[in-house]
Design brief:
The protein is α+β, with helices and mostly antiparallel strands. The chain is built from nine helices and five strands.
């Protein structure tokens, strides 16, 4: 799956979860909590179908391709502890997710776009790869350009609430990753055990 550019409200309705968080997609799920299409009844899915839905939640939520997700899974499997929890923690440490969770963007696709356009610096170095893994002690800043300072200053003031493992200096527009995220910090409602079982087949 490449980067998804289709109707986001349909994805939310198909998966029955708030995967895309922008206003239109949220409104679509609130108004019609049924899958899109002619049928008005949600058919009972098989065990494979249920697991596939859970996997698609992770892929759409974090903007991952299949190969990326499997690469993360292979890395998570080598980490001591619960593989599913380690997988989601690795996803949380992606740069685009951290930019979004810090409050620089309202959604992950918006954060991804800003990173690709080189709007941010990681530890003083301009970056353009949303998939970079961020570690405790890393500092993310907005590049020192008046138009970017104005844009992200407004987003920070009206943005989403922050999280415990990231501190944000609104005046300097700098986000400091204090600690690594834990499984409790993951905001996506997903049965990751089914995903692990599916990928392990």
């Amino acid at each position: 799956m490449g980067r998804y550019t289709g109707p986001k409200g349909r994805v939310n309705r198909r998966l029955g979860a708030l995967v895309f968080e922008d206003a239109g997609a949220t409104r679509a799920l609130d108004q019609r909590n049924l899958p899109p299409g002619m049928s008005q009844r949600r058919r009972k899915a098989s065990n494979y179908g249920l697991a596939l839905i859970e996997k698609q939640k992770i892929k759409f939520y974090y903007g991952l391709r299949e190969r990326q997700l499997r690469r993360y899974f292979d890395k998570a499997r080598r980490i001591k502890g619960n593989t599913g929890e380690a997988l989601l923690i690795l996803c949380e440490q992606r740069l685009d997710n951290v930019v979004c969770r810090a409050g620089f963007a309202q959604t992950r696709p918006q954060a991804r776009q800003g990173i690709v356009h080189s709007h941010f610096q990681l530890n003083g170095v301009t970056v353009n790869k949303p998939s970079i893994w961020v570690k405790p002690g890393d500092v993310i800043t907005v590049r020192n350009r008046p138009n970017l300072k104005k844009l992200y200053g407004e987003l920070v003031e009206s943005g989403r609430p922050g999280c415990a493992w990231i501190t944000l200096d609104k005046k300097a527009l700098a986000a400091n990753v204090v600690t690594a995220p834990t499984f409790e910090d993951v905001s996506l409602p997903v049965d990751v055990g089914q995903v692990v079982a599916l990928i392990s087949r």
